[in-house]
C-alpha cells in the first residue's frame, strides 16, 4: 500500500492505494501557514480514522501545484511513515509525452489525471478537472498530451461575483429547480451550475472537434472523463456524455509510482 497525496490550491487530496483498491480518499485544506508538524498530525489523523498503521505503508508519492509547500508536505510524510516520498516533476517517469510549448509549465495534477485516464479509458480522451480552476486536457490517439484549456473555477467565479457586488449573497453550489431563476439566489445558482455545465459542454464540443481534425479520429471515439472536487455538482447537468471518476488522481499517482520503483 502507498500513501498518495495531491496538493491543490484549495484542498489536499490524500489516499491509500494498492494494486487491488483505493482504501480511502479524503480532503484537507491547503494552508500556507501550517508547519510540517501540523500537516503530519492531519495526515496521521486521517490514517487513524481508517485504521491504517504506518507499518502498512511501503511507499509514498506527492504531486503539487503549490511549490512553496512541497518540502513541508514531504517532511510531514517522512515524520509519520519514515519514508521519503516520490515527488512528481521533472525526471519522474510518467509515460506521457507532452507536446506543449513549455512542458514544464503543465500542472502535475493535469499530468497525473491524463496518465490515469489513458490507463483506465484509452485514448483519444479529454479530461476535465473541476476544482479551484476548471481544466480540460486533451490526449490524442497516440497517447500524446496535446494541450487543453484552463477556466476560472466555479467557487472562484462565485466568490469574485459576491465580493464585487453589494447586494448579491453567498450561495451554496446546487442546481435550482429550473434554469430560469425566480429569485436572486436561484438566479445565481442557475448561473453557477447550469452556466458552468454549458461552458463545459461548449468547450468539450470545440476541443473534441479540433482534436478530431488533428488526428483523424471520429468524435464518438473521444471519451470524456471528469474528476475533481466539484465535478459531481456540475457534470450531471452537462449534455455531453461524461464519465465521472473522482478517484482518477489517486489512480494516476499509483501508476506513476509503479513506473518509478520497478
From TrEMBL:
It is an enzyme of class 2 (transferase). K(+) binds at residue 129. InterPro entries: ATPase_NBD, Type_III_PanK. GO terms for molecular function: pantothenate kinase activity. Homodimer. Belongs to the type III pantothenate kinase family. PANTHER family: TYPE III PANTOTHENATE KINASE (PTHR34265). This is Type III pantothenate kinase. It comes from Lachnospira intestinalis.
Amino acid at each position: 500500500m502507498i500513501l498518495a497525496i495531491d496538493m491543490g490550491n484549495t484542498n489536499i487530496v490524500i489516499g491509500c492505494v494498492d494494486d487491488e483498491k483505493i482504501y480511502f480518499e479524503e480532503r484537507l485544506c491547503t494552508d500556507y501557514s501550517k508547519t510540517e508538524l501540523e500537516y503530519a498530525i492531519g495526515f496521521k489523523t486521517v490514517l487513524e480514522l481508517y485504521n491504517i498503521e504506518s507499518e502498512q505503508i511501503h511507499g509514498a508519492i506527492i504531486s503539487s501545484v503549490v511549490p512553496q509547500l512541497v518540502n513541508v508536505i514531504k517532511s510531514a510524510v517522512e515524520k509519520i511513515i519514515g519514508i521519503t516520498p516520490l515527488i512528481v516533476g521533472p525526471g519522474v517517469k510518467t509515460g506521457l509525452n507532452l507536446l506543449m510549448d513549455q512542458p514544464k509549465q503543465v500542472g502535475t495534477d493535469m499530468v497525473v489525471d491524463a496518465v490515469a485516464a489513458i490507463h483506465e479509458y484509452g485514448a483519444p480522451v479529454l479530461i476535465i478537472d473541476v476544482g479551484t480552476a476548471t481544466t480540460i486536457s486533451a490526449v490524442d490517439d497516440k497517447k500524446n498530451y496535446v494541450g487543453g484549456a484552463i477556466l476560472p473555477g466555479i467557487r472562484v467565479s462565485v466568490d469574485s461575483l459576491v465580493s464585487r457586488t453589494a447586494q448579491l449573497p453567498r450561495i451554496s453550489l446546487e442546481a435550482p429547480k429550473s434554469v430560469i431563476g425566480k429569485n436572486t439566489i436561484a438566479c445565481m445558482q442557475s448561473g453557477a451550475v447550469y452556466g458552468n455545465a454549458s461552458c463545459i459542454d461548449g468547450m468539450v464540443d470545440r476541443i473534441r472537434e479540433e482534436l478530431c481534425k488533428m488526428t483523424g479520429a471520429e468524435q464518438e471515439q473521444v471519451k470524456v472523463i471528469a474528476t475533481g472536487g466539484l465535478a459531481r455538482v456540475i457534470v450531471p447537468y452537462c449534455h455531453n456524455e461524461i464519465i465521472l471518476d473522482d478517484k482518477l488522481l489517486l489512480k494516476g499517482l499509483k501508476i506513476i509510482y509503479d513506473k518509478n520503483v520497478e
